[in-house]
Task: structure prediction
Amino acid sequence: MEKRPRIALVLGAGSARGLAHIGVLQVFEENHIPFDFIVGSSMGAMVGGIYACGADMKMLGRMLGHLDSRLFFDVQLPRMGFISGKRIKELLNLMTKKKSFEEINIPLLIVATDLLTGEQVVLEEGSITEAVRASISIPGIFHPVKRDEMILVDGAVVNRLPIEVARSRGADLVIAVDVTFGEGRTVSISNTMDVILTAIDIMQKMQFDLIYDKADILIQPAVGGFASKDFEKSQEIIQLGRQAAEEKLDEIRDKINGYNTN
Result:
């Protein structure tokens, strides 16, 4: 029997555009595309974490179509962030069933940034809710997460698409999903969150250009025309994730099947 490659699924940052990851996972499940572990940054960490905890991706997609995302943004007078994150933590507890990394069946690695050292932190033990909450904490928007001696914020600050994290954990084949730098990207600046997210995008573009081709397969849903806050357009974004994944199915199967002939 031929040995299958060790496959990592890397889910990148992208705020509302990251909902496309749900569509990608739906297609992978329907077509029995295997992967051995997930690496997620920011919204990729959120979707990957929820999936790893056993959530039904089709049900999640339907639920988001009826969810008012504003209910989970508890705005406060800014001290370390405009949004305290208590409500999003409650949502994450519900969706992850309060599971820890030790309780899930598929290994999960979540990338965050330590403000004190400026370094990448890979979270893989303890509460998944806490890890995801750290990885989505956009600086200046969400209150950071304090953990041990660290002050953790959005993984996208240092690593929007953590392909090399997957390689460092023994991935033979990396399937990466980027939801920011594909074709059709537009920029709309209308509020503080747009300013911060666009600035982070600009800072990350050079890094992305250096790493994107290190993935064996790069999936880029055509979500560039959506704003970071377009959570109410979840169904359109999820469908674009599905479309992008379906277009890559043959390439993925060829890579897997050809692994032992290379």
